[in-house]
## 1
Amino acid sequence: MSTSTRWDHQVIYEIIHAGSSVLDLGCGDGELLSRLINDKGVQGQGVEKDVERVMECVVKGVPVYHADLDEGLAGFPDGFFDYVVLEKTLQVVHKPLFVLEEMLRVGRAGIVCFPNFGHRDIVESLVHTGRMPITPVLPYQWYDTPNIHLFTVNDFLDWARTKGVTVERGLSWANGRIRPFEERDALEAEEVLFVISHLRSDKPHLCAPRGI
């Protein structure tokens, strides 16, 4: 499986239970929501900034709200959705921490997937060439990349600990395969996916997330 087949789409599809309510932030053309709605009876809602992508969602019959995530999710009440998906979107928004807070406010669980800018090849390429790395996961030149916040797995886990957020599950895309997240993946994972929720008093904070 290559990243072009969206390994994260299939993982998210398998995580989300049939009949759940799902909000997909930065839903793109609505492909994931369309599958979840048609196959699993999910009550889905997308949020997308790009007008052309919004129209693609409409064509697929996917409910979509045209909005900028950096302006928040004021139209949605607290804890309204079973899952809120933030798939390869966190690094492109201007207010990533605000978007994460809004995600956890409106959802009982969040599913976050992002490229790991701490991957060993990226770091070594930058050091050895003095130029921004170009990889299968990060195929952009420095002047046309949509990624405006470059962060690592450890940066994200630091944020989770600081904010009392529980990492329920973790998966890595490394060496062309999916595997449960391990500590070594801070350097070895090209992309990661975490299922997160607010820390509850009856549940310990998992410093090391478990795989699915």
## 2
Amino acid sequence: MKYFVGIDIGSTATKVAILRENKNEIFMLKSMPSGYNSKDTSLDILKWLNDLDIDENNSKIIATGYGRISVPYANKSITEITAHAKGAVFLGASDEIIIDIGGQDTKVIILENKRMVDFIMNDKCSAGTGKFIEVMANRLGLSIDEFFKVAKLGTPINITSTCTVFAESEIISLINKNISRNDLAAGVIVSMANKVLSLASKKQSSDKYFLTGGFSQSDFVIKILEEKLNAKVSTHEFSRFAGAIGAALS
């Protein structure tokens, strides 16, 4: 095989990683919205791959993520837990605890000697996930990028509701009290970090964490997580592609 392709179809974003045949060199990365239909998204990816002269004759394709069953041309599929663990190790993690804040769920993955030994995911509640941030950003009339920018400028206000629905109602109430968007956005990030702390606390503690997923590029999220976890939180410039990279390695 000349190429190994990992396709991570999440609930919000889809990431693709193409590794060369030695599996230690990234050939190309791509990100796009998952859109309405995961299968249509997977077919758009197939066309993109074919335009790069990558097809079933010179590649192995592995799917992961929420929509992994919607990739009919994949040679196999793997779980997001396995994919993020392998991807994080590729990006430099070793004995750290991996945190992935996904669109629908948050995962805490424990590595020992670069191998996954345990994990835990949030329950069905969306608090502490990307969906929580998305709902609150929409309520504040901000894009996700704008949300993180204003959050850095704010003083976090305490948000007491743990449920996304009730937290949104609380945000509306605070807006009516003229609390600034900066402070509200900062408070939402802290609320999410508290959920991550609660989840991670159910497993072993560590002085080293590694953040993957879409929020890994936010230095404010990393700062708040470090404060809550009382530990170093590392990441990598390609950490948002960790799932796709891990799939390509499988």
## 3
Amino acid sequence: MIIRTRDEKMMSTISYIIVSLFALVAVVPFLIVLINSFASEHSIIYNGYSFWPGEFSLEAYQMVFQNPEKMFRAYGVTIFVTGAGTAVSLFLSMMAAYVMFRKDVRYRNSLSFFLYFTTLFNGGLVPYYLLIVQNLHLKNTILVLLLAGMFNVFNILILRNFLNGSLPDALIESAKIDGAGDFRIFLQIVIPLSKPAMAAIGMFTALGYWNDWWTPMMFIEKEDLFPLQYTLYQILSSANFSSQMVNSVPRLDMPKESLKLALTIVATGPIVLLYPFVQKYFVQGITVGAVKG
């Protein structure tokens, strides 16, 4: 049985209080958004945001799910793009990081500089648009939603630094002496030992795919391929346009503020459920190695 001193107990109590305060600062705004998304437009305008809606209303959610088939299709596109894109992006990023980690790979420093250079300079929006539309012919395809966020140099550099600090060269050499090939070493040794870093980077990548509304706005015109974020953006734009059209005749029954809150809940709700599963890897994956050399 571990007996803690009085100073340790006091330090633990202070730590819990500070962490609880930070947790409240993070959670309370989201609770206010959630609660007031069920308030009527009239209640928000005259009473402001509160912890209890003055007048309960589902009108904002009814407006969001006015066309349920369209919304569920948008959810399906977003879930597929997020899942498939994150898995492939993680695999390719890990392979690139492993190549740059291996000291026996020729020109690995040149490859690192080439990747880093692209983070400082790029061709701009017009060449990027022409490349996607005229050269790759990816407009109005699901591939453009997958490929646009698949390769992130920043994530590759983080994974490479993780391997430098956690994967000893002796482990790779031992596997080679036992007859393992490079691809087998990558699949059976590198990836299992890199789970913390891959979980953290996977969460960042998944959030990028989930929140991407710019790529479909630029390259997608088929309604069947609209992801969730772009569909919500269209709903909000339509509501703002309708509000401006009736501006001369004020209408308090048209949800506008409550609609924004409901859209926030609809957009962030499912992805928030991922946090508890990868939370423990956030710090460990970036700063601590999986193998102590």
## 4
Amino acid sequence: MSPTAAQDSLLTGFDEFTATRASEPAWLQDSRARAAATFRAEGLPTTRHEEWRFTPVTGITDVPARPVATSAADARAIDGFLFPDFGGPQLVFVDGRFAPALSQAHALPAGLRVSSIGDLLGTDPDLLQRHLGAAIRFRQLGFTALNDAWFTDGLVIVAEANVVVESPIHVLYFSTGAGTSYPRTLVVAGANSQLSLVESFAGLDRPYVTNAITEVLSAEGAHVDHYKVNRESLEARHVSSTHLLLERASVFSTHNISLGGQLTRNDINATLDGEGIECTVNGLYLADGDRLVDNHTAIDHAKPHCHSYEIYKGVLDGSSRGVFNGKIFVRQDAQKTDAKQTNQVLLLSDDATIDTKPQLEIFADDVKCTHGATVGQLSEESLFYLRARGIGKDDARALLIHAFAEDIVERIRIDGVRRALEQVLLARLPIRE
């Protein structure tokens, strides 16, 4: 199959799909049609595109793109990806569709609305029309259009002004391996509201594709604490983009933990569109075998007196590959910007590779901006220090690797999530002579 034919196959059945959704509002039908036209014009990215230079999207076109019509999952498979003692609602979507029977409900405070897109289309479609897509300022070539065209459901969280949500919310997007899913998450945080959200992605041990979009609209003074945990099948392709539109004095933090997937591509685009914003973007990625993890972040300082902090750490083994591309834009009006960015990578084998590219584009003159990247292996000096105190070589290696990765995990404020990920790290990080 030619590359063009392969790309065309990703819209096979689109007319039939939209025909089954004829009851949707006209604005959504128009949006799907425009998205399909955009994809036909853009196609999938190739390594000739600068932003995808190190990331061939092989395997994407091998999986049917049309969303799975009906799906079901075994509760025992789901339970393994829910967090014990979480303390808040855990909502499950299977192959992109809400599965209430597999979800764990929880009392919600007044002023907080948590719903599926499917339900909102029936009860409040105007809310979706106002907010869906509003935070997307930078599109992920081809993939954003595919999600816009094919998505079937997703989670919407709306916090009214001054609402403080004590319990976190967990949404698990689970794939059965039957095809492609298009998860969609929309968070609308009203002025001075506070909430925490965990997004998980997981699936059965089969080849499948996840193409996800997350949007966060944070009004003045809102605090949003966000976590994204990728525990996809090691045969899965995971492509996602997170779009942040932050207003004056809002505080946002995200921790992006990538543990699974044959191919993982994470894009985070943040627009700091008001004064006094604080934005934290952290990440941890582990890969072995021939897996590939690609993290792209872009933080746009559009207004003065804003702060952004970014730390990404990677642990690569086998012949795995990592990519980190972090951009910080400081516009001419964004005086008194304070931005810090760091990428640190630990290579555990001679065949593991990383391409890292921190970037600063500064058009203001009164700013404090730093960036840096370090790539290395375990410190022989540190190993010697530990072994000199009676610690065996394997244990010394494990201690150093865990200390490196734990620096990101220990920043997770939700106890149940942090403990679960610590257990995953103990099981996944390699120990070898």
